[in-house]
């Protein structure tokens, strides 16, 4: 089977209306994509922001034609946005998706290996982790920066906190790199489930990796604290994150755009001796040591 793909360039305020219309006239799926490489930063609670230049991609089963789709949309009695059509040949979508992901190396010792691949270096520290919906797999620069930082730290025998743990990738990396205990916390219970599943996949005992919602977090200190979230929460939660450290504790913060680095550094400079900022693809990692 082949598919007819229809692309509409639309403004954010009209996007939902035309999504509904495309589905009403027979589209089997409609996808929102960025039409101009515009980042969306931290949205207000309860909002779903769209890009100023939004594209809708709709898929129709053939034998649907360009003329049919255009005519059906015209029945709504409004000017139809500019449409671009493309015929998409059917393929093994699952295999195509899997082919996009390969083992990735971070630092000297650490690899992330999808379940369908052999580990390139069986003697390395290999984390078995498949791409998921939203929780972090190492492909984003912020996660990559944290993994590289962890690979360079002396973690043997340490206790680690993964603040905003998502998939648990950072805590799992720390444990496989030599830490004896890790704690993960996240506001999303699904993230805690993802962390728990990934820990089991990597043969990490429940006793070695504890998981908590924020309100249930125990009061304790850690040797290393990693927080890969967003700049705004990193600033507002600086007292909370710092409370989990003691003199000599190491701290790594990411999820920060380069232009946000100064504000985040300022929020931690009083309590931490900060290292030089590390940047990758416009994102940064800020690390440091808790002062005596």
From TrEMBL:
Q: Which protein, by its recorded name, is this?
A: Ribosomal protein L11 methyltransferase
Q: Reaction catalysed?
A: L-lysyl-[protein] + 3 S-adenosyl-L-methionine = N(6),N(6),N(6)-trimethyl-L-lysyl-[protein] + 3 S-adenosyl-L-homocysteine + 3 H(+)
What is the species listed in this Swiss-Prot or TrEMBL entry? Thiopseudomonas alkaliphila
Q: So what family is this one in?
A: Belongs to the methyltransferase superfamily. PrmA family.
Q: Read off the Gene3D superfamilies from this record.
A: Vaccinia Virus protein VP39 (3.40.50.150)
**Its Enzyme Commission number?**
2.1.1.-
Where do the annotations place S-adenosyl-L-methionine binding?
Answer: 143, 164, 186, 228
| Name of the encoding gene | prmA
Q: What does this protein do?
A: Methylates ribosomal protein L11.
Provide the alphabetized UniProt keywords: Cytoplasm, Methyltransferase, Ribonucleoprotein, Ribosomal protein, S-adenosyl-L-methionine, Transferase
Q: What are the GO cellular component annotations?
A: cytosol; ribosome
Q: What is its main location?
A: cytoplasm
Asked if the keyword Cytoplasm belongs to this entry, the reply reads yes
CDD domains tied to this protein: AdoMet_MTases
Q: Where located?
A: Cytoplasm
Q: From which lineage does this chain's organism come?
A: Bacteria, Pseudomonadati, Pseudomonadota, Gammaproteobacteria, Pseudomonadales
What are this entry's molecular-function GO terms?
A: protein-lysine N-methyltransferase activity
GO biological-process terms attached to the record: methylation
**Which segments does the entry list as coiled coil?**
none
